[in-house]
Every structure is written in structure tokens, then in C-alpha cells.
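mind reviewing this fold:
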Amino acid sequence: MRSSNPVFSRRGFSRDNGYAGFNAQQPQAGGPAVGTNPYAQGTGNPYATNPYAPADTQLGAGGPQAPARTGVMTIDDVVARTAMTLGTVVLTAVLSWVLLPVDEANIGKSYGIAIGAALVAMVLSLIQAFKRKPVPALILSYAAFEGVFLGVISSAVSTYISPGVVVQAVLGTMCVFAGVLFAYKMRWIRVTRRFYGFVMAAAMGFLLLMAVNLLFAVFGGGDGLGFRSGGLGILFGVIGIILGACFLALDFKQVEDGITYGAPREESWLAAFGLTLTLVWIYLEMLRLLSILQGND
């Protein structure tokens, strides 16, 4: 299942970039042959081949057999790489908060550095998204520059809106992550083709509206069409967070498929990168929503 996450939608854990692992379940002993996706049978899925099955699968007693593979991705790999990537974001965010104050004397300099860091982070993320393999140096560099941007923005919001809003946004992001993970593990959220299509359509519509609002704000001044303030701002903030939660579900499915089908260990960096992008999205939407609510008090 391809994720709506920009990184996963580019490559994913499937060489054919298709819906490998649609409606996946745990493999059963004595199940279908190695090299065949046992979870796609009977679902009408055209991508029924495990893209990570060894090419030298040989026929033996009881069906095709494959040599044991090493260096495959595990959940521990994903957790470790994600912790490293998010840790880099948090560390640089804290440092930028301390070293780049947004007081009257330094606000212009701090904002300039934050905007520059955001642009560099965007370029690095695009470079990684179009590479065939994950590059840890690129991913950690993206995390560092993203952290600088988040640190300055968070400091500004905390200084000029509410001192406690950043802590609330962090806790809110953690709650969304934990809630979606729990719901996904309990199978309350089922990632299907219909779910994927709905999320993609909603995301494209959301981003289009935000782009139009930004253009009106740049050329017309003020808050554009008002999608980021007042009642509309609250509504679109909630929608943004819900979309982020949906991205998380798609990302969890992507990671699950990668582990199930024996993706190379290096792919855990791609999983960490994608999850970091999604969590940054949720945090920014949460911060924006809380800022509007605090500002209306």
C-alpha cells in the first residue's frame, strides 16, 4: 500500500511501486510459496509478487524454498532510526530556541535564519524523495534544518501568543501518534484502497486551498481568504490534524508491509524519514490550531 506521505508515495517498500501487501495479515506456516504475496490472493490485487523475494528461489520438497535472508528491516531498526531522526529535530529545535531568540533586538535575524533553514530542509527532503535509496546523511541533515525552523517558530509563538502553547502542541502530537498507533494495531483503522484514495483526494484539496489562501495573502495582504484565522482557521486546523493522523495510518501500513516482505535494512531510514515528515506536519497544524484558540481567548 503506497502512503500519502511524500516519501512513501515516491517509492514505498515495493519495487513495482504498487499496492503490495493490500489487506495484509501475518504469514502462516505452510502458506503460499516464497516470492508470492499470500495476502493479495483473492483480493483482486494485480501486484501479487513479493518484490523482496530472492531471485534464486528454487523448487524443493513441499514447494519452492528460498535461502534465509539477512540484513532485512525489523521494527527495532525502524524505531532506532526514527528516534535518531526525531532526536536530531528536537535537539536542533532546542538549540535554535536558545541561540536564536525572537526578542525585539534579534527577531529579524532569527526569522531570516528560520526561513533559510526551512528552504534548505525542503530542498534536502526533495532530493531524498527522488533518490533511489535512502541516504542517512541527507535525512539527518533535513532533520537538523527542520529543527532550526521549528525552534524559531515555536519560540515566536510561545513569546507572542502563549507561553504554554508549545508544550500543548507537543503533547497533542504525541497523543495523536499514540492514538493512531493503538487504533491501527487494534485494526480499528483498516488501510484499504478506498481509504488511500480518500486521504489522497482530501490531502490534494487541502493543499490546494492552502496554496490559494497563501497567494491571496501575499498579493492581497492580511490573512488571504481567512482559512488560517477565526472559525475557518479552527476548522482547517482540525482538518489538517485529521489528515496527519491518516498519513500516520498509511505510514504504519507501509512499515508493516516492509517488515513482512523482508525489505532491506536500509529502508528503515526511509521509514524514519517519512514518519518524521508526518509528525512535523501534525505538530505544525497542532501549533497553528492552538495558537488560534489561544489568540481568541
